[in-house]
Amino acid sequence: MKFLIGLFVSLFLVFNVPSLNAEEKIVIDGSTTVGPIAKAFAEYYMSVNKDVDILVSESGSGNGAKSLINGTCDIADMSRFMKDKEFKAAVGKGIFPVAHVVALDGIAIIVHPSNPVENITIDQIRDIYKGKIRSWKELGGPNKKIVMISRDTNSGTYETFHKLVMKKQKIVQNCEYVGSNGAVRGRVQNTSTAIGYVGLGFLDRSVKGLKVNKVYPTLRTISIGKYPIARPLFMFTNGYPKMGSHMYQFVTLYLTKKGQEIIKGIGFVPLTKY
């Protein structure tokens, strides 16, 4: 009998005591805008912490919030603040969302590189997406119909655009919706008459960024609050991470010199300066 008890205890310890070499896993989901920051952070963090496995998915800010609420992710990347109804749903499931502002971002208005238009106003952008301005000729461009590209309505970038530019007014029905910043950029770079909007980190030479109210989106114009379409970028966790834990070190990486270098290198605006 003693032998059987001893064997049972030994098996229990083998199968139930965590291995000292076991990897800690951090699952991240959400915004396609914050996604590049999360992926770059993850790549760096795993390179210096071999005992951590970080998985990053990009399903949109709304889905990131849902994943945190449902307990299927540890960090929700969001390019907008969590809505009241999302907070309520989270608390109802025992989840207590804490926001970490990891960077600042500007939403760049982009057109095809061949488009001669250089500047546009907030009112003109709104009128385009409302269907009131239909031709580039009305803005000093060619006499060609404007093709409107928008992020999908589950996107935090869409939410910000809808609030800051559209003033919560409806976008016209013939607007085309796509699922990511990269998809918006792809449609614009391949469509000579298109207009779209992307996070600053997705503005490159394949498209042309427009001045908005005579201000071009740059790290400086966004950081000093001069560019009119700007926002903070968030990582949400369930409660504040335990001090010193991998979760804590990861979500506060933006406060370090290395984190700032990563954020700036991707094309976003760091919160700290060294």
Report what the structure shows.
This protein has 274 residues and is of the alpha/beta class. The protein folds into 2 domains: 22-103 and 231-266, D-Maltodextrin-Binding Protein, domain 2 (3-Layer(aba) Sandwich), CATH 3.40.190.10; 105-229, 3-Layer(aba) Sandwich (D-Maltodextrin-Binding Protein, domain 2), CATH 3.40.190. It contains 10 helices and 11 strands. The strands form 2 sheets. Strands 1, 2, 3, 4, 6, 7, 8, 9 and 11 form a 9-stranded mixed sheet that branches. It is globular and about 60 Å long. The model is unreliable at 1-21 (pLDDT under 50).
Explain the layout of strands and helices:
Elements: H1 2-16, E1 24-30, H2 35-48, E2 52-56, H3 61-70, E3 75-78, H4 84-92, E4 97-111, E5 119-120, H5 122-130, E6 147-151, H6 156-164, E7 176-178, H7 181-189, E8 194-199, E9 208-209, E10 211-212, H8 219-223, E11 230-238, H9 246-251, H10 257-266
How much of the residues is beta strand, in percent? Answer: 15-25%
CATH architecture of the largest domain: 3-Layer(aba) Sandwich
> CA-to-CA gap between the ends?
67 Å
Number of strands: 11
CATH topology of the largest domain: D-Maltodextrin-Binding Protein, domain 2
Oligomer: single chain
Give the helix tally: 10
Order of helices and strands: HEHEHEHEEHEHEHEEEHEHH
Low-confidence spans? 1-21
- Major beta sheet, specifics? 9 strands, mixed
Short descriptors:
single chain, alpha/beta, 2 domains, two-stranded parallel sheet, disordered N terminus
